[in-house]
Automatic annotation (TrEMBL):
<feature type="transmembrane region" description="Helical">
    <location>
        <begin position="315"/>
        <end position="332"/>
    </location>
</feature>
<feature type="transmembrane region" description="Helical">
    <location>
        <begin position="21"/>
        <end position="43"/>
    </location>
</feature>
<feature type="transmembrane region" description="Helical">
    <location>
        <begin position="405"/>
        <end position="422"/>
    </location>
</feature>
<dbReference type="GO" id="GO:0016020">
    <property type="term" value="C:membrane"/>
</dbReference>
<feature type="transmembrane region" description="Helical">
    <location>
        <begin position="338"/>
        <end position="362"/>
    </location>
</feature>
<dbReference type="InterPro" id="IPR011701">
    <property type="entry name" value="MFS"/>
</dbReference>
<protein>
    <recommendedName>
        <fullName>Solute carrier family 22 member 15</fullName>
    </recommendedName>
</protein>
<keyword id="KW-1133">Transmembrane helix</keyword>
<feature type="transmembrane region" description="Helical">
    <location>
        <begin position="282"/>
        <end position="303"/>
    </location>
</feature>
<dbReference type="Pfam" id="PF07690">
    <property type="entry name" value="MFS_1"/>
</dbReference>
<feature type="transmembrane region" description="Helical">
    <location>
        <begin position="155"/>
        <end position="182"/>
    </location>
</feature>
<keyword id="KW-0472">Membrane</keyword>
<feature type="transmembrane region" description="Helical">
    <location>
        <begin position="101"/>
        <end position="119"/>
    </location>
</feature>
<dbReference type="InterPro" id="IPR036259">
    <property type="entry name" value="MFS_trans_sf"/>
</dbReference>
<feature type="transmembrane region" description="Helical">
    <location>
        <begin position="131"/>
        <end position="149"/>
    </location>
</feature>
<feature type="transmembrane region" description="Helical">
    <location>
        <begin position="374"/>
        <end position="393"/>
    </location>
</feature>
<keyword id="KW-0812">Transmembrane</keyword>
Length: 456
């Protein structure tokens, strides 16, 4: 039997899978706290510089003449990251996303480096520790998602993937509350850090699932899907190389990489800009987390409708996110609460959250089993590039107040349009081998030129 038939025997979502998925999704709370740490510990309050007119001060002299207007404890106030040093706050946030690693090992070292962040004696140590936490965090996030998909049957992929994203959003909201009650930035960093395949191997795992689910079987055998074909594929190249040389996968990967990049840039850019929005920054951070929650029921509803599906839903949500960011340019900052820059930014965050969640589920369905991990890994790397750039986008307000939202608008709209080039995967069987991508029974938008010319 193939893998999908095996899950029908052992149980697609039994008691064992429920416990395993629960552990994996709860890890997202810890990861969300680490991702959002720089928003609060890097907050820079207003300040005054007392100096005589026409007198230029050195960096050391400047520190003696700075007075902050708020009694705030952050890395900006402790190490005076202002004026020419202000970029270091965004840099620390960017270094976190520069990182990309096995689940338990990564989690252990992420906790270790998280405590280094909280105890850092200087900015340089803090920045390096954020890079190292990001190295672990990025790998854990991808592994968590892949495991929540591989532990269950295909019919539950959308649900488990959505649960992962939803728990991350809850983690952001909890971090906003945590920041309100724990004011010194070192204590906040400490608290955030404390919330925390071969066929033979597949058979072992599946049999163990069967026993734990009460569906024990002694004759479970997986068929070698396309074994001869797989050997031919190995001669042509496997893994990441196939994403480059295979005509269908090459175009598909290029589109997905840009979609993931845009989702990450807009998602984290809007979230990291929460502290710069008008109003209480702790409430803003919590709201930017809570506003995501309605996105996930919307995802589940739309991606399972034949008239919407994965492709149209993802493209539409990206387009709506870009449109919401566009509308912020026409709303004055002093407008009321119902229609304001903050409320439109929250709408944009809701929409891009939905698109990002669909991108995770959709990508895992677009790649055949033999290449799925490589495809997700490449897309995740592109996602990290968006995350690296995201902390710097809100600071583009210095050029023009609408500049950050212009970047978010163009990214969302362009990614939505490109997403329409991808094929629909709703109700389509998951491909096992690369040859199945060219199967005539599968409707694919991004196909090789030969098939395109033959069809028309």
């Amino acid at each position: 039997m193939d893998l999908e038939e095996a899950f029908q025997v052992v149980g697609e979502f039994g008691s064992y899978q429920k416990r395993a998925v629960a552990v994996l999704v709860l890890t997202q709370v810890y990861m969300a706290c680490q991702s959002m740490l720089i928003v609060l510990v890097g907050y820079t309050p207003e300040y005054r510089i007392q100096q005589q007119d026409g007198t230029s001060l050195s960096q050391q002299e400047l520190l003696q003449h700075v007075t902050f207007t708020e009694d705030i404890d952050s890395i900006a106030t402790e190490w005076f990251l202002i004026k020419q040093q202000a970029y270091k706050v965004s840099l620390a946030g960017s270094l976190f996303f520069a990182g990309r690693p096995v689940y338990l090992t990564g989690l252990f070292f992420e906790v270790v480096f998280g405590y280094v962040s909280a105890l850092a004696p200087s900015y340089e140590v803090f920045a390096v520790s954020r890079l190292l936490v990001g190295l672990m965090n990025g790998g854990i996030g991808l592994v968590c998602f892949v495991l929540t998909q591989e532990y269950v049957g295909k019919s539950y992929w959308a649900m488990t993937g959505t649960l992962t994203s939803m728990t991350f959003a809850i983690g952001i909201a909890l971090f906003g509350a945590l920041g309100y009650f724990i004011q010194p930035w070192r204590s906040l960093a400490m608290a955030a850090n404390s919330s925390v395949k071969t066929s033979e191997r597949q058979l072992t795992v599946l049999n163990y699932m069967a026993v734990r689910n009460g569906n024990a079987t002694s004759n479970l055998m997986l068929q070698q899907v396309g074994f001869a074909k797989a050997r031919n594929q190995s001669k042509r190249g496997t893994g990441v190389l196939q994403l480059v040389i295979h005509p269908v996968l090459r175009l598909r990967t290029m589109v997905l990489m840009y979609v993931w990049y845009a989702c990450s840039l807009v998602y984290y850019g809007l979230t990291l800009g929460a502290s710069e929005s008008s109003g209480n920054r702790y409430v803003n951070v919590a709201m930017y987390g809570l506003v995501e929650l309605p996105a996930y029921p919307l995802c589940i509803y739309f991606i399972n409708k034949h008239w919407a599906g994965r492709r149209k839903s993802m493209a539409s949500f990206l387009g709506l996110a870009g449109t919401a960011c566009l509308c912020t340019m026409f709303v004055p900052e002093s407008t009321g609460n119902l229609l304001s820059v903050t409320s439109l930014a929250l709408v944009g965050k809701l929409m891009v959250s939905a698109a990002f969640n669909i991108a995770y589920v959709y990508t895992s369905e677009l790649y055949p089993t033999v290449i799925r991990n490589a495809g997700l890994g490449v897309c995740s790397m592109s996602c990290r590039v968006g995350g690296i750039l995201a902390p710097f986008v809100p600071s583009m307000r210095a050029l023009h107040t609408s500049m950050p939202f212009t970047v978010f608008c163009l990214s969302g709209l362009s990614a939505g349009c490109l997403g329409l080039l991808l094929p629909e995967t709703l109700n389509a069987p998951a491909a096992e081998t690369l040859e199945e991508l060219g199967s005539p029974t599968r409707s694919r938008v991004l196909e090789s030129k030969e098939k395109f010319n033959h069809r028309f």
